[in-house]
Specification:
Elements (H helix, E strand, L loop, with lengths): L7 H15 L6 E3 L3 E4 L4 E2 L5 E3 L2 H15 L3 H11 L34 H15 L2 H17 L2 H5 L4 H17 L6 H12 L31 H9 L4 H9 L3 H8 L10 H18 L2 H16 L20 H8 L4 E2 H19 L2 H13 L16 E2 L17 H16 E4 L2 E4 L5 E7 L2 E9 L6 E8 L3 E9 L7 E4 L2 E2 L8 E9 L4 E5 L4 E5 L7 E6 L2 E6 L8 H5 L2 E4 L2 E6 L2 E6 L9 E2 L2 E2 L3
Parallel strand pairs: 8-12
Antiparallel strand pairs: 1-2, 3-7, 4-9, 5-6, 7-8, 9-10, 10-11, 11-16, 12-15, 13-14, 13-16, 17-18, 18-19, 18-24, 19-22, 19-23, 20-21, 21-22
Helix pairs in contact: 2-4, 2-17, 3-5, 4-5, 4-7, 4-17, 7-8, 7-9, 9-10, 9-12, 11-13, 12-13, 12-15, 15-16, 15-17
Length: about 600
């Protein structure tokens, strides 16, 4: 079928099949130290196979897409043209995005990372096109790629303190515009980009702080060459060529992954977002090369991360990971307001947990993804047209939501990508059926055994634990529908067409319902939402957060309140979405992160009994 006559839906379906066909992982692997044979990884659905009906999710996507569509193209290309010696018409975009040859790295301000987010924005627009099929979005993607192709230069990398970082984001934008937006020139542009970039990159992964460009200042050691492999492996999977598998393999940071695979906490003291992002490279090394070592490294890395996470699922105060059982996480509640690099950290977290879930089919990865989604990035302040961006979640005892002091920082690149990816995080599939990972009002439609299947999900989750599903099928079909039962959901139950499902529904697992499904069948999943307290860590048992279901409830207070455990657990819900705790000094309001605007809040409270 020619590109001109292929419909968007057929194109996306064909693209999805081609990626699945490119995967080289055998049907079954035996892992030393991991357990019994593991079935093939679960597959992602295409973006257009999932419709979300959740206002906060859709509002974030629509707003981010609108901001990107409104950016002036000459402003977007200006730093690349300037650094390549071309005429640069148009106004500067400002902030980190601009090129300033006199930039002083001590200021950490405008000119810090010229054009660093360009590739991420093209990626986000490509995914947005895959969702809504807007001809206007696709036209802008193709035009940006062609303008970018004219600006490819050695100068861009020679004058850039982050050549590997920028190259990695450009690769992501080009492979996404090829795969999701059908840009026929994207892979050729990728080849030229790679040919140019490789002349200016280290020969292998270089750790942050390690000098490899003589005569440069300290800021040039902050590049992130160790994150390159993930998108190189994906480029190979999408047909860009054997060289990308070789490049990905060559940049695997094995002095980091090797000890991590053996259980050593090599994350300690390292930059948080970029090293969690590098775990996604380890996962792609497994998915592409079948490397057991890298799979173990990613799994152990997640476990290390999980052990030092805040109650929200966020991690990395002041952008640094910590030693196992470090007291520094607790100390950050008074010493820092930079608790979690929210859009960037969430993007890396979602990818890592999705990859791990695909391989291990373990519900704890979905639990972790859900916690981060509802308690961090979904409550981020919206990206602004002038480049103001929400950078950090603040878990200080005197926390506030604020915009970054720097316009167009790295988080302005990842937030639009996060907003598109809620869809591919919600459902996964295998040959037997579908895996329901996230509880978001939505509709999934796909083809199973030559029949059309539609799964509609309705709920007021995460405020209410009753989730309803209805199946519409073109013909009866035997398939398995797997529902994630969160670890906190004691007493969970499932009913099919009004009758209780007979098999046990165990928290911390996927409940698998295998039957012949018919048009109009209904499923109700009941997840009891009880109040519970979660301590910061074992050293601080009296520093606790109040949690209900997947939601952390933040105390809206200007000072630490005297409160008991029982008072917190007795919190009432007089108004939907708002809770109150009765204390000796009056009522204290508790809100989920998504409902907080400019109020001062505290994530944790110190209980007195």
């Amino acid at each position: 079928m020619s590109r001109q006559t292929m419909t968007r839906r057929k194109f996306l379906e064909a693209s999805t099949v081609s990626v699945a066909g490119a995967a080289i992982v055998p049907r079954r692997w035996h892992f030393s130290g991991i357990g019994s044979p593991v079935p093939p990884p679960l597959e992602e659905f295409a973006y257009n196979e999932v419709e979300l009906h959740s206002e906060p999710h859709e509002k974030q996507l629509q707003h981010c897409t609108s901001i990107l569509m409104g950016l002036n193209e000459d402003s977007l290309l200006k730093p690349m043209r300037q650094m390549g010696g071309l005429a640069p018409p148009g106004e500067d975009l400002g902030g980190w995005y601009i090129y300033d040859p006199t930039y002083d790295w001590h200021t950490f301000d405008a000119g810090f990372a010229p054009a660093a987010t360009f590739g991420q924005w093209v990626s986000a627009l490509s995914r947005a096109y895959a969702i809504n099929g807007s001809a206007e979005i696709r036209t802008k993607i193709l035009r940006l790629n062609r303008l970018y192709a004219e600006s490819i230069s050695d100068g861009f990398y020679e004058k850039n303190r982050f050549p590997a970082y920028c190259y990695d984001k450009l690769v992501c934008g080009l492979i996404d515009s090829h795969h999701w937006a059908g840009d026929p020139n994207a892979l050729a542009i990728l080849q030229r980009t790679t040919d140019t970039a490789l002349r200016h990159l280290p020969a292998h992964a270089v750790e942050q702080g390690e000098t490899w460009r003589p005569g440069t200042d300290e800021s040039y050691t902050w590049d992130e060459s160790y994150t390159i492999p993930e998108n190189q492996f994906i480029a190979y999977q999408r047909g860009a060529g054997e060289r990308y598998k070789e490049i990905g393999t060559g940049y695997l940071h094995d002095s980091f992954f090797g000890p991590l695979a053996s259980g050593e906490n090599t994350l300690s003291t390292r930059h948080a977002y970029s090293h969690v992002n590098s775990l996604c490279s380890a996962m792609q090394a497994y998915l592409t090369l079948g490397s057991e070592k890298h799979l173990r490294a990613a799994r152990n890395g997640f476990d290390t991360l999980n052990a030092q996470s805040f109650v929200t699922g966020g991690w990395g105060p002041d952008e640094r990971l910590r030693a196992t059982d470090s007291p520094e996480v607790a100390a950050s509640l008074t010493s820092s307001h930079s608790s979690f690099e929210t859009p960037c950290g969430s993007y890396a977290h979602f990818k890592l947990t999705r990859y791990l879930l695909r391989v291990f089919r373990d519900s704890r990865y979905g639990d972790s993804m859900e916690r981060v989604m509802y308690n961090t990035v979904l409550g981020a302040k919206p990206l602004q047209a002038d480049g103001r961006s929400f950078y950090y979640s603040d878990y200080n005892f005197e926390g506030k939501k604020v915009y970054s002091n720097h316009r167009w920082p790295c988080c302005s690149g990842t937030l639009p990508q996060v907003a598109t990816d809620y869809r591919i995080n919600t459902y996964l599939r295998d040959q037997e059926g579908v895996w329901v990972n996230l509880y978001i009002p939505s509709t999934l439609h796909w083809t199973h055994q030559s029949g059309e299947v539609r799964l509609a999900q309705k709920s007021s989750y995460p405020y209410d634990g009753t989730i309803e599903f209805e199946l519409s099928l073109s013909k009866p079909a035997n398939l398995t529908v797997n529902f994630r039962i969160p670890a906190w959901a004691e007493g969970a139950s499932i009913s099919v067409n009004g009758r209780r499902w007979g098999d046990p529904v165990l928290p911390g697992t996927f409940a698998s319902l295998r039957r012949e499904w018919k048009n109009g069948d209904r499923v109700e999943v009941e997840l009891p939402m009880r109040m519970r307290l979660e301590a910061l860590d074992f050293r601080n048992p009296d520093t606790v957060a109040l949690v209900r279901g997947p939601l952390v409830l933040f105390a809206i207070t200007s000072s630490q309140q005297q409160v008991t455990r029982q008072q917190l657990l007795n919190a009432t819900n007089p108004v939907p979405g708002k809770w109150q705790v009765s204390t000796a000094h009056g009522a204290m309001t508790m809100l989920p992160f998504i409902a907080i605007e400019d109020e001062q809040y505290s994530t944790y409270l110190k209980v007195i009994a």
